[in-house]
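Escalated from tier 1: fructose -6-phosphate holo job.
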Amino acid sequence: MCGIVGYTGCSSAQSPLLEGLKRLEYRGYDSAGMSVLGKDGILHTLKAVGKVRKLEELASQTPLEGACGIAHTRWATHGAPSEKNAHPHLDGASRIAVVHNGIIENYRDLRAELEAEGETFRSDTDSEVLPRLIAKYYSDDPVRAVEEALQRVRGTFGVCVLFQDHPGLLIAARSGSPVILGIGKGFNMVASDVCALLANSRDVIYLNDGDLAVVTPEDAEIRTLANVPVNREISRIPKEETGSGKGKYEHFMLKEIFEQPESIGNTIRGRIIPEDGNAKLSGLNLSPRELAEISRIVIAGCGSSLHSGLIGEYYFEEIAGIPAEVEQAAEFRYRNPIIEPNTLVIPISQSGETADTLAATREAMQKGATVAAISNVVGSTIARECGRGIYLHAGPEISVASTKAFTCQVTALWLLALRLGRNRRLSNELGRQSCAELQRLPELIQRVLNQYDHVAALAKKFSGMNDFFFIGRGFLYPVALEGALKLKEVSYVHAEGYHAAELKHGPISLLGENVPVIALANCIPGQEKLLGNMQECRARKSPVIAVATEGDPSVEAFTEDIIRVPETSRYAAPLVTVVALQMFAYCFAGERGCEIDQPRNLAKSVTVE
Ligand code: F6R
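Tier 2 regenerated the structure:
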């Protein structure tokens, strides 16, 4: 979604700003812009619809010379993607520039008030009220003006403000939308995502909600919006979290698919105690007694993280014997969920910034639940606010379509179920079996990846089709949902995931020779029933692509289009199966010439509800 970068130093601001924007591209956006305080003492602004590349071209024709500036990538919410709606937005006199992430819920009222006072707005955005409000409260104290303006705002914001009259000064603030400071030698930076800082600094400060930072090249002073000074620690981002390029791969999605043996290895590293048949999850920070007291689990997430949660539900019930349910994070707080004292709530979020999952986290905490997050991004808001949980250590996930984070989430859920199970009635023997299989996951996943050429050929064969069904049962039902989500995200074809038995209750009317069904037939138990469901699809002339266990001939009666995966327990089956579907989606999108890493309309981290 929208991205913020700010730079104040003694060398040119333009290049760190553009570099930061490029590093934010993966989040999804539709326009970009940048304001720099020029050597002539005037704010200069460039904006472009489309890629950062276009802004860069403009900047190479008309360089913005100056050592202090702000930049933004916009993902349209209020007003179409256009130059006038792109950030930075300026006040009427063009002396104050603002970049904003989030949504100003009362912008209509504020805009009407400002218009009544004579302001003429240039854009259709909610964000433009900010520079105009700041201007309204500004006489000579920029910090006070920003504070006063933000006190009028309802909604969410991460902002960075640049004043023409105050060279070298950036004012940043957050409420519900991340803001991070990058601390350098002779310069400081502001960003909405740590990625945008890493080319220049690995020392960062995460602002909390309600913080305001006064940033100059030498200093970063933090206070609350109510003007109380606060101390926030500097964190050093480990080298391995800084990510690298695409390497030998054409797309980040492909790189991340192929990284899965390693990323899953990182999720389990140091967390398995084979001799005890147990897992060690120190980030949970819960004593054996506290773990034993958990009587119910509620999982909340969105998109792929919701799907991994659905697999987690099976793990918790089967392995740990604890009743579990999964909630769409977007519904969680509006449904007023019942949270009992011994309920463990698990928000799952790769980014740790998804607005709905964050809202669910806060709701659960406020209701007194024990809340432990599963997140990939170290220091993300959800992870910090929970203060306990499991980091995936999957490394940065850049492709908008989640792949390695999904499989690491599933792995983390399995580890947690094992930990909880061994705290209860799960035997040492069964615990050891889980440990052994968890340790084999990298090898099992690699065997699926070795099928890449075959999957690519299948994707080519079916690349003319525009409607797909994915069906599965048991542990593979959520994988059917995830496989369909992957396909529609990156290739823009219609794809639906269904429980195999549900097909008969309506959607079967849509089957036919142009509607292939991808059947996840490596499920144990339930395989016989799934073979029956495949038969039903064939009877309606739908072509079937089967995912089946190596050496299992039973699917051959229905189709010759088979993707083979290694034989596993039902616990590992979702992991090997989803990797096959990720490859299929990637290859299919490639055949159709789609923009794979940044699919249209999508954002990597959805920070608005
Ligand atoms: C799908 C995808 C999205 C995310 C969802 C939640 O490939 O990436 O569906 O899973 O937006 O994001 P996080 O996990 O960051 O909360």
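The pocket of fructose -6-phosphate is lined by residues 302-305, 349-351, 354, 357, 401-402, 485, 489, 605-606 (CB under 6 Å).
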